[in-house]
Amino acid sequence: MARGMNKVMLIGFVGRDPEMRYTSSGQPVTTFSISTNRRWTTSEGEARESSEWFNAVTWGSLAEAANASLRKDRRAYVEGHLQTRSWEDAEGQRQFRTEVIATKLILLGNPEHNGEPILPSTSVPASAVPAPALATQVQAPVPASQMQVGEEMPLCLNRVMIIGNLGRDPEMRYTPGGQAVTSFNVAATRTWTTTSGERRNSTEWFNVVAWGNLAEICNEYLTKGRRVYVEGELRTHGWEEPSGKKHFRTELVASEMIMLGPRPASAGTGLVSNLEEDASSL
């Protein structure tokens, strides 16, 4: 049984043509960027729009298929897991880069479809994430006869699901407008088996942010070490030092949280409906 979950599902538009290279051992690696778009209305009734950019990496035969099939502005579904790597720059500063390691890729629609939102009439599959080396194919575009067009349907998807343990107690603050914001981090461990049959583990840390009522619940009930399921979307924000050096931070903005494991003695029945403590449905 898996110890944790680290799963990302995106529907967006390819930002540039893919670039493929080969490792020293001859394994193909393809990188590309994909953007997702979200729209919302503020409490004052103002319409807002925001885009998020993701760096995606594919390996093996999937890398070769992605390099052959993907092109800039092509709409695609990408499924995989998040992985963060770090290095030291020439100035001795530690740099971080978060990437989506893609294990499934489905080409969607047609970029010349006048921007109309088109999604398959059936939901996008959400199968278990295999190891990168086991990814094998790019699925062809869905035929028009199997597609459904609707102006109320979103163009993009930005969904992340994790299961892991809190690395520290939550910290809650309030915005100048009085809205609660709670932050905490979660360690999610992914387990897979290599082609040689060797079992591997990898742990990723996620910076999680919850807002409003969910923020207050997280602050009240979560503690360091607690096992949780968190679902939400990735957002990246940046800032610049007076010296001009730029920094970026990627966060999982939670829309749902489920506490896993034994029910705390203090937990009553007054929790909001999305805070079920039954892991059997996962």
Strand pairing plus helix content: what structural class? mainly beta
Quote the distance from N terminus to C terminus: 12 Å
CATH architecture of the largest domain: Beta Barrel
| Rg result | 20 Å
CATH class label of the largest domain: Mainly Beta
Helix content: under 10%
What is the strand tally? 15
Question: What would the average pLDDT be, to the nearest integer?
Answer: 77
Task: Write a structural description.
The strands form two sheets. Strands 1, 2, 3, 4, 5, 6, 8, 10, 11, 12, 13, 14 and 15 form a 13-stranded mixed β-sheet that branches. Strands 7-9 form a two-stranded antiparallel sheet. 7% of the residues lie in helices and 52% in strands. The longest helix has 10 residues, at 60-69. The chain has two domains: 5-152, Nucleic acid-binding proteins (OB fold (Dihydrolipoamide Acetyltransferase, E2P), Beta Barrel); 160-281, OB fold (Dihydrolipoamide Acetyltransferase, E2P) (Beta Barrel), CATH 2.40.50. The relative contact order is 0.15. The chain is mostly beta strands.
